[in-house]
Design brief:
Strand content: 15-25%
Order of helices and strands: HEEEH
Protein name: Transposable element Tcb1 transposase
Radius of gyration: 21 Å
GO molecular function: nucleic acid binding
InterPro entries: RNaseH_sf
Amino acid sequence: MWTAELNEVVFTDESRFCLQHHDGRIRVWRHRGERMLNNCVMHRHTSPAPSIMVWGGIGYHSRTPLVRIVCTLNSQRYISEVLEPVVLPYLQGLATPIF
């Protein structure tokens, strides 16, 4: 029974990919009193790192096209740029989809 249902489940998610070697998040372990020592401080560029945000979905036998998300994705843009043009046609191709 579960196998038949899992064949119709569609999982979706979005991910941000940083286009530089890091996204600015640096973890540092220091001993007490070392906070401002020159050898414990790393100077770095502080502007936002260039990145790309994408959305996609996968099912048991197929996947959706990958959608590039430009700017901030609000509910209205999610409906008009992801749900209507990508998700609905994909779900219509499945017998009994579970989204």
